[in-house]
Design brief:
Elements: E1 12-13, E2 16-17, H1 18-45, H2 52-71
Antiparallel strand pairs: 1-2
Helix pairs in contact: 1-2
Length: 72
């Protein structure tokens, strides 16, 4: 079964995940802003969808990604 929160198959082409390409394209400041924006987006819409747990999981994923990036 696919992990639709941590590694959605539709976000990977070859050996590169979309998040890696976004990070490379945006640079440090842009990537931090991107992650923060996605945390807000997924928290905002979670209660308005059929699967709130999935959106909470995605918000958590982006928050953890942001924290890892800040610690690098």
């Amino acid at each position: 079964m696919s992990d639709l929160v941590n590694h959605p198959p539709h976000y990977k082409h070859g050996d590169i995940e979309c998040i890696q390409a976004i990070k490379a394209a945006l640079g440090d400041d842009g990537f931090r802003a991107y992650c923060k924006g996605n945390v807000i987006k997924y928290l905002w819409r979670a209660e308005h969808k059929d699967n709130a747990d999935q959106d909470y999981g995605k918000a958590d994923w982006y928050m953890r990604r942001l924290l890892l990036h800040v610690d690098e």
